[in-house]
Write a structure and sequence with these properties.
144 residues; mainly alpha; two-stranded antiparallel ribbon; 2 strands
């Protein structure tokens, strides 16, 4: 549990369920990133944003602005900030089918409601699975 707490990004993403996290990365995905984007194989596995200081090939070179913000504000998660939610968490349609960035605010709200441990144990994996596999239904969110 402690490891999964540390692998919950300040923005609410569940790094422990991410396909490029070092515990989940497959040879096939490593080869895909290496071949398609020229990323050296040794640089593809991610340990989580907190463990890597917000620096990884998939993040801006200057690092993660959200991680820098929570460090400055001395909060563990964005939902513990007085300015939550803010523009750093704003959803976008761009690449929504490839990256889970639109789950952030929902995840943070659920963490605030049920607690981090309960969210990790009971919700995080299911939320991510639904995000990438369930169709959207107007007025309902996810279709049944």
């Amino acid at each position: 549990m402690e490891n999964k707490k540390a692998l919950t990004a300040p923005c609410g993403l569940d790094c422990f369920n991410c396909d490029i996290h070092e515990n989940n990365l497959t040879r096939e995905l490593t080869e895909f990133f290496h071949t398609q984007f020229g990323v050296p194989r040794d640089n593809i596995a991610c340990k989580g944003c907190r463990q890597q200081g917000g620096k990884h090939f998939h993040l801006p070179q200057e690092g993660c602005a959200t991680l820098n913000c929570v460090k400055t504000r001395e909060v563990e998660l964005c939902s513990y900030c007085d300015d939550f939610p803010c523009a750093l968490l704003a959803p976008t349609a761009d690449k929504a089918a490839q990256f889970p960035h639109n789950m952030k605010v929902y995840n943070l709200c659920r963490i605030k409601k049920v607690g981090l441990e309960s969210w990790i144990e009971n919700e995080a994996g299911e939320i991510r699975k639904k995000y990438f596999t369930k169709p959207f239904a107007v007025g309902k969110g996810q279709a049944d």
